[in-house]
Write a sequence for this structure.
């Protein structure tokens, strides 16, 4: 993934979801290291869930090669519908959406190679320093 590309987030629902958007952006950016779209969904109303699914389709049309991830309440209530939607790479559990390791795991399950930025929760082992003989 290209480290210079942004994470685009579409947030629906309650004030808590809106407040959590920054934490999602930081965790996903650290974990994915490249372009992705995230739908932070809501299940309080049927309309909010429909709007989240529309956002998945819109984000996919806007950038067909960019993975789309879904998190939030609606993703748990209607996980099968979201996973069946074209372009959805994975779902991150609502309780884990601020955790970079959850985003890495979702990408790995989707077969997406991630190159996290150094110092941003990078799970890759570092090569040992070479020694001169």
């Amino acid at each position: 993934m290209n480290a210079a590309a942004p994470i685009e987030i579409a947030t629906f629902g309650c004030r808590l979801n809106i407040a959590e958007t920054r934490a999602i952006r930081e965790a996903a950016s650290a974990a994915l290291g490249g372009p992705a779209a995230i739908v932070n969904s809501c299940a309080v109303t049927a309309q909010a869930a429909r709007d989240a699914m529309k956002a998945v389709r819109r984000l996919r049309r806007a950038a067909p090669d960019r993975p789309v991830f879904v998190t939030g309440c609606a993703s748990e209530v209607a996980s099968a519908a979201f996973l069946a939607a074209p372009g959805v790479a994975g779902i991150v559990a609502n309780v884990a959406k601020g955790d970079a390791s959850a985003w890495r795991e979702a990408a790995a399950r989707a077969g997406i190679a991630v190159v996290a930025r150094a110092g941003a929760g990078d799970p890759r082992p570092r090569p040992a320093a070479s020694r001169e003989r």
Summary: The chain has a mean pLDDT of 84. DSSP finds five helices and four strands in the chain.
